[in-house]
Amino acid sequence: MATNQHYDVVIVGAGVSGALIAKQLGAAGKSVLLLEAGEDGQLSNAESLERFYTAQAKVPESPYSPPIVTPDAAGIQSPSNPDEMTIGRATTLMLDEANWQKSDQAYMDQQGPLAFASTYERIGGGTGRHWLGTSFRLLPNDFKMKTVYDVEEDWPISYDDLEVWYGKAEHEIGVAANAADQGYHGITFAPGYNYPMPQIPDSLVDAAVEEGLSVLPPQEGIKLGVTNTPAARNSVPFQNRRQCAGNTNCIPICPIQAKWDPTVTLYEALQNPHVAILYKTVAKEILIGDDGNVSGISYLQYETLDGGATGNGTVSAERYIIAAHAIETPRLLLMSTNGGKLPNGAANSSLAVGKHLMDHPIYLSWAQTAEPVYGYRGPLSTAGIETMRDGTFRSEHAAFRIEIGNEGWNFPIGDPYTSTLDFVLGTNISQLNQTKKAHFGTGLVAGLNQALISQFRLGFLVEQTPEDYCAVSLSDTYKDKLGLPRPRITYDLSDYTKMGFVAAKKVSSNIYGAMGAEEFTTHPTAKEAAADPSSFSVTYDAGGKVVPEGTAGATTDHFRYFGAGHIVGTYRMGDDPKSSVVNWEQRSWDHKNMFLVGSGVFPTVATGNPTLTIAALALWAADIILADLE
Ligand SMILES: Cc1cc2nc3c(=O)[nH]c(=O)nc-3n(C[C@H](O)[C@H](O)[C@H](O)COP(=O)(O)OP(=O)(O)OC[C@H]3O[C@@H](n4cnc5c(N)ncnc54)[C@H](O)[C@@H]3O)c2cc1C
Ligand code: SF4
């Protein structure tokens, strides 16, 4: 396909949303061109694995391009300089106090007051290259928070509207679960509905938590229970891919692709002669014609990841889909000023583009069980506690789901490496080598075994409220090597969200108490919280109301939070063009032949990991676009 051809549809971004829509439209005989900023994600799979195996810092971005570290003249690996990167993206390496605002290390121009702690990928397949695969449906009440709890916003669609698309998405990406276990908090399935694969078995850690919960009294009036987690991971051979071998490496890369990732669907789409892709092609402006419709998309192309632009072009179509995720999509919209004709960018008559940036900030806690649970076997997580995703408490504080980790203390302290070094060197960073003795021989092996087989952690994914002050805009100071402004981020957490952390901490300690587990969670001191951009302090009274620090009788807690990678909300859907960017169809209010897809359309972050909902909405959008094109 030549690029000067006029297409039925042009899609910007070949991640979850872009790949799913391309496959559907191609199958219906429509000509589709994908513009993808990154390299071909699957052809470099072997290289990605090698890069991950040899990486010193094994963070989610380690396997993928552009490299997050680059050797200097002396061969020492240092964080890659975003000024020198053709297509930068955020990395978790930058999130500590020392680096988060250093422009030669951090791609995003973070203005605070808190750090936005989540990252994404810019490679064929997108962020789904390193996702975990957790595939939840949202709850009916997640769609109507304003109506039910008088907080946040209602969505313009309901669970019932989305139910059929959830089923299609589960079958398209291949989700393993048992419908009989997933019907909690009002979730319903079509009569006789089955997931395409049986569930992944629970781990021994899940069983230990479940046993503990059996003696735990209700929390805020809710009896907690363990539920198997639906996952886009093969429990049996499925769609020519192998079943999960259980080696706990799902983030950042499944070596055998038992976990679905978007390159699976993308490559299926590209088998179709109607679908084409341009890699290393960065959309830089959405062009708006005199009739208010999109008339084309202009792009830059490059050869090397640090070389700058080597070409450019414009492409046109009947329909345009922007699927570049919740930071790069608003960045592209805001860059699309059309020579000053649209000073606030494309699709932005509401001025809502970029606003309401959300995540599920994570409260992380960790403990050792009395009896061994043998983590590090099976996927990173196979079950969770979903019971506190909903309840009357949502009028007062944020809800959360609780992910049961199956990878020891890898997330909280970087184990097994940290404890191993403690035992070899005689240090005690892990708190497991209290004597600070260096061990060797059989003593080393026995000590480490004892320590590692009882470790587990809980991750509380806390609901964050949509706020104007959490926003993506364009940096007026920093650019990437293509000369495009880098994303600027302002970010903070509301009292409602912070009180979700307070509730999570209480529930967490109560769970460990009921299990007879020894908790090792550490919290920052007041001074550390004040200095750390990923920490906050919150003071509250006996009624759970946030009050000024120093109030008599009040309690102050200090928390460190982590990003979940659930980047949401920056081009929200709604019923009113004055306050939303797209309508329920995900169609731009301002430019009727353009659709904005992905989690940026979510009006609230809700209580489930977002990607199954992204996939369901993408399939729905494809259907709407097909009807449009008929
Ligand atoms: C560590 C981690 C674990 C996660 N685990 C889960 C999980 O278990 N469950 C879950 O539900 N979610 C999870 N997520 C979130 C999930 O990965 C995202 O929700 C999902 O990938 C978003 O899909 P998308 O298609 O909207 O965006 P992406 O997958 O990010 O795709 C966007 C694409 O657009 C391209 N692009 C960007 N800018 C441009 C441009 N200007 N021109 C052309 N192309 C462009 C990018 O290169 C990319 O390929 C996780 C995220 C992280 C970080
Ligand atoms: S546990 Fe291993 S095989 Fe299974 S999905 Fe995760 S990485 Fe792939």
Automatic annotation (TrEMBL):
<dbReference type="InterPro" id="IPR051473">
    <property type="entry name" value="P2Ox-like"/>
</dbReference>
<dbReference type="InterPro" id="IPR007867">
    <property type="entry name" value="GMC_OxRtase_C"/>
</dbReference>
<feature type="domain" description="Glucose-methanol-choline oxidoreductase C-terminal">
    <location>
        <begin position="466"/>
        <end position="618"/>
    </location>
</feature>
<dbReference type="Pfam" id="PF00732">
    <property type="entry name" value="GMC_oxred_N"/>
</dbReference>
<keyword id="KW-0285">Flavoprotein</keyword>
<feature type="domain" description="Glucose-methanol-choline oxidoreductase N-terminal">
    <location>
        <begin position="224"/>
        <end position="361"/>
    </location>
</feature>
<comment type="similarity">
    <text>Belongs to the GMC oxidoreductase family.</text>
</comment>
<keyword id="KW-0274">FAD</keyword>
<dbReference type="GO" id="GO:0050660">
    <property type="term" value="F:flavin adenine dinucleotide binding"/>
</dbReference>
<dbReference type="InterPro" id="IPR000172">
    <property type="entry name" value="GMC_OxRdtase_N"/>
</dbReference>
<dbReference type="GO" id="GO:0016614">
    <property type="term" value="F:oxidoreductase activity, acting on CH-OH group of donors"/>
</dbReference>
<dbReference type="InterPro" id="IPR036188">
    <property type="entry name" value="FAD/NAD-bd_sf"/>
</dbReference>
<dbReference type="Pfam" id="PF05199">
    <property type="entry name" value="GMC_oxred_C"/>
</dbReference>
<protein>
    <submittedName>
        <fullName>GMC family oxidoreductase</fullName>
    </submittedName>
</protein>
<keyword id="KW-0560">Oxidoreductase</keyword>
